[in-house]
Amino acid sequence: MPVQMNASADNRREAADIVLRVENIRKTYGSLVALRNVTIDIRRGTIHGLLGENGAGKSTLVGIISGQKSPTSGTIRLDGHEIFHADVRSMEEAGVFLVTQEPMIIDHISAAENLMLGIWPSRRGFVRWKKLKADAARMLEGSNINPEARAGSLDAVARRKLNILRAMFSGGKVIILDEPTAALTVPDRRQLFEFMRQLKQKGVTFIFISHYNEEILEICDAVSVLRDGSLAGGTDDVRSLTSEQLSELVLGRGLDLFQRDRRAAEGPVAIQLRNVIAPHVQVDSLELRAGDVVGFTGLPGAGAKELARTIFGLHPAREGTISFDGGPGERLPTHPRDALDRGIAYLSDDRRKDGVVGHLSIAANIALSSLDERSWMGFIDSKREARLCDDYFASMGIKAPSPLVAVDTLSGGNQQKVCLGRVLATRPRLLILDEPTRGIDIGVKQDVLRIIDQLSRTGVCVIIVSTDTDELVRAVDRVLVFRSGSVQEVVTGGDITTGNLRNLSQA
Ligand SMILES: Nc1ncnc2c1ncn2[C@@H]1O[C@H](COP(=O)(O)OP(=O)(O)OP(=O)(O)O)[C@@H](O)[C@H]1O
After folding, report:
1. Is 379 found in the same domain as 449?
2. Which of 336, 377, 445, 478 is most exposed, with the fewest beta carbons within 10 Å of its own?
3. How many CB atoms lie within 10 A of CB 479?
4. In this protein, which residues make up the domain named ABC transporter (predicted)?
């Protein structure tokens, strides 16, 4: 019976190959079924992509794997052993780490101390500070993070990098990265991927959540796709897939990619900025015509985000004026309220800080910043408010039972859609969007780009601050590349390509 013996040896080898198995996992929130009997095998030493539309159940699944959430039913096996009553601590001790989109960093200690959190070297009960600093400095080499810097002073990207590095150096054998590349620059992303490949060689396994096909195709070995809480498909050989097939697997249909019909800068100037000077910003002149969609890009600190925030009154300008429709130059807004009063709206890239109010409903959030428009002599027109909320709820494709549920209960991408609905509802004349589709799935991303396009056709000027080159290529008329606080390059027409923008924004 040699054939049978070979088969069982193969089975054993195969079982040993599987570091993590989720089996028949089901999770419900009241009547909502977030996961329906999901079974996935994750092979040791691979990078396993987890894909799905917003609200498909990805964060819920990795929350369960990492011990943050408990399943309604089903089992998790690590190295073939069933795990009972897992919590975050026991899973980290077992080598399973979840790196979320919101870095868990302690602000008042240094980057080095944060990096080594939980693994501070000690001798006879005393922390070996010298060794800690030396180890941390080695790990942070090439990351542009000063090991001595107070974590609270680091920007969002540095915090995210620190969090990823912490999991990697804490001896994780299964590391889950939930949209780790959001906000990372191209060089940062390359560095992260290189690092993942090195650890993979050493047998570390990654579960990698991303909405970017190109990333999945570049870094993953295998993928599993969730659709509406069920496993919709997957493969152990990502190389056999094309980007279109990946989209189809995620959406259950083909993807209709959006491409703006670019306009030349013609017609009277609607908004003009002059001599704007602010920390990290020095811009002599910027002109927007009605209906222009302009992209701002560059490395962190190069001025793109800073200028956008200056126009909205979040980043104090030392000098500079703004004028509307050929009128006289006015001082720049000194406060967001002042900006909103003058028809300038802004979507922050930090939805935790200035995005949504979690315990309020979707409708209340959408209504928040457009209160003036729906009130008349101090009274709120509630019919109008309901209509407005219904419109945005439907057009943004927000996945929730109704506009009345609390934003807290939505998936990350759906929360982002609420933020976007909220700024669009202010009906501004200048709309500034900072990373508008970050965290949003590929299908809805096209819808959002379409909505921005339609809005611009009503005469609204739009500024999109973005590090997503694909987004810029699809959505804008021209791209301003920032360097050292100034506009270094203006890219127009056929020159707006992914390759060009990557080269220019890294230079
Ligand atoms: N605490 C909660 N209460 C009620 N429903 C919840 C809760 N947490 C998640 N859900 C629901 O479970 C479903 C799955 O959400 P999950 O966050 O896992 O999606 P996701 O695939 O990670 O989406 P995204 O890409 O937007 O991050 C969604 O319908 C979401 O609204």
Report:
1. no
2. 377
3. 26
4. 20-253, 252-507
Do 176 and 193 fall within a single domain?
yes
Indicate which residue's Cα is closest to atom 31 of ligand 1.
410
**In CATH, what number is assigned to the domain containing residue 223?**
3.40.50.300
Q: What is the pLDDT of residue 354?
A: 58
DSSP string, 35-55: EEEEEEEEETT-EEEEEESTT
pLDDT of residue 3: 38
Give distance in angstroms: CA of 132 to centre of ligand 1.
38
Q: Which two tokens stand for residue 203?
A: 């047998």
- Give residue 31 CA to ligand 1 midpoint distance, Å: 13
Phi, psi of 272 (to 5 degrees): -130, 130
**CB within 8 Å of 149: residues ≥ 6 apart:** 110, 111
Mean pLDDT of the chain: 85
| Distance, CA of 407 to CA of 356 (rounded, Å) | 8
Question: What pTM was estimated for this model as a whole?
Answer: 0.81
**412 pocket-lining for ligand 1 (C-beta < 6 Å):** yes
Within 8 A by CB and 6+ apart from 492, the residues are 262, 477, 478, 479
* Radius of gyration, alpha carbons of the chain: 24
Range of the domain at 47: 13-105+154-251
CA–CA dist 127, 106 (Å, integer) = 18
